[in-house]
From TrEMBL:
Residues annotated as transmembrane: 120-138
All copies of domain CARD, residue ranges: 38-96
The protein's name in its UniProt record: Caspase recruitment domain-containing protein 19
Source species: Leiothrix lutea
Name of encoding gene: Card19
Keyword Hydrolase assigned: no
Length: 179
């Protein structure tokens, strides 16, 4: 896809409200005017930096002017946009099309959102459910000796459970097993 077609595709995105502010547009125009190869002449640069015209009008005129000049001029605009507004450059619709050319690929932005839309409460609920089911299965199995295995499990957990809490749990399990 040529840079002119990409610029035509991105034109609405770039000219919509609050995407580019005046300072960034002025920096882009100055870069196109001063950097080799000179894309804009001094008169053209003054025209696109005129504060009397609205920012939307100046930006629209600049983009149309660059499209008429050719692919090289549009490419230099993209380079200036990348230097002066990198976040906006990365969010361009044409860049997203270039990143995912095949429709069968997974869109990582959507996939990341889908994986992260559940909060920590969901994780804790799932973890509690799994731990509860495991404890239920362990305690209800008639073939196992609860006290012996519980003593081994609690014996290896002095870091997780304090010593006093562990002793209370062991005493309770021994008392339950006697009854």
């Amino acid at each position: 896809q040529s840079y002119c077609h990409r610029l035509q595709h991105d034109m609405y995105f770039l000219t919509s409200t609050s995407r580019l502010n005046e300072q960034v547009v002025d920096k882009i125009v100055l870069q196109l005017n001063r950097v080799y190869p000179q894309i804009l002449t001094n008169e053209e640069a003054e025209k696109f930096r005129n504060p009397k015209a609205s920012l939307h009008t100046r930006l629209s005129d600049l983009l149309k002017h660059l499209q008429k000049k050719g692919d090289r001029h549009c490419q230099e605009f993209y380079r200036a946009l990348q230097i002066n507004a990198e976040q906006l450059f990365n969010d361009l619709p044409s860049r997203k099309i270039l990143k995912t050319p095949d429709s069968t690929e997974i869109d990582t932005d959507k996939e990341q959102y889908m994986l992260n839309d559940r909060g920590p409460v969901f994780f804790l609920a799932c973890f509690s459910m799994a731990a509860g089911l495991a404890l239920f299965w362990y305690c209800c199995n008639s073939e196992t000796q609860v006290v012996g295995r519980a003593r081994r499990i609690l014996g290896f957990s002095p870091i997780i459970i304090g010593r006093h809490v562990r002793n209370i749990c062991l005493l309770y399990l021994e008392d339950v097993s006697r009854n």
